[in-house]
Design goal:
With 224 residues, this protein is mainly α. Helices cover 76% and strands 0% of the residues. The chain is built from nine helices and no strands. Pfam families: BPD_transp_1.
Length: 224
């Protein structure tokens, strides 16, 4: 049933390695961008709050496939922005990461904003009374506690991001979903086996992540 894995025709491990790379780069970028958006949403500057709110509500409710294809068609093919990629493969990978960051950052923002709301207001007021600026209060007092409170929600976002990397196949990124499509076309007699291989691969990627970050969430939870 699984003879197609021994043929050497399909690089399953290579495809999942691309998926892992997409996840890692997008996760780091989403964490940074989501933190910036969360800061905007709680900022005392109306313009920043308005931009953060509008961006989150607009992008979060836009299909990820549309965002990724938009990055490919709008940035690469229309505007000629390749993000430093010298080949089609490199350009597609980087554009997929950009689309995933733009989308996933909104979910990181909302998870982090809920964590910010758990920090007692009195702590921020006390910090301002000591003469700290908004940026100092946010980075030194509020965000460290907020991150500790939302490890579990961020784990869910990371797991969703891992599964969302399959959308990169729409612009030709050679990750797991694209290879699975090719194998389903060529190995019609082993459809169940192909599905089983890729389902197991994604379980092996997401299950340890959930268990590890669940343990971390319990260890770093803020006792109130």
């Amino acid at each position: 049933m699984f003879d197609f894995l021994d043929s050497g025709q399909y690089d399953v491990l290579g495809a999942f390695w691309v998926t892992v790379q997409l996840t890692l780069y997008s996760a780091v970028g989403s964490l940074i961008w989501g933190t910036v958006l969360a800061g905007m949403r709680v900022s005392p500057v109306p313009l920043l709050r308005g931009f953060g709110t509008a961006y989150v509500n607009l992008v979060r409710n836009t299909p990820l496939t549309l965002l990724v294809i938009g990055c490919s068609l709008g940035l690469s093919q229309t505007l000629g922005i390749n993000l430093g990629g010298e080949t089609f493969k490199e350009t597609g990978f980087r554009l997929a990461v950009l689309g995933l960051i733009a989308y996933t950052g909104t979910f990181v923002c909302e998870a982090l904003r809920s964590g910010i709301n758990t920090v007692p207001v009195g702590q921020a007021e006390a910090a301002r009374a000591l003469g700290l600026s908004f940026f100092q209060v946010l980075t030194l007092i509020v965000l460290p506690q907020a991150f500790r409170a939302v490890v579990a929600p961020l784990a869910n976002v990371l797991i969703a991001l891992t599964k969302n990397t399959t959308v990169a196949a729409t612009i030709g990124v050679a990750e797991a979903a694209l290879l699975m499509k090719e194998m389903l076309e060529n190995e019609a007699q082993a459809v169940f086996a192909v599905f089983a291989v890729f389902a197991l691969g994604f379980v092996l990627l997401t299950l340890p992540t959930g268990l590890l970050l669940g343990w971390v969430a319990k260890r770093v939870a803020v006792k109130r």
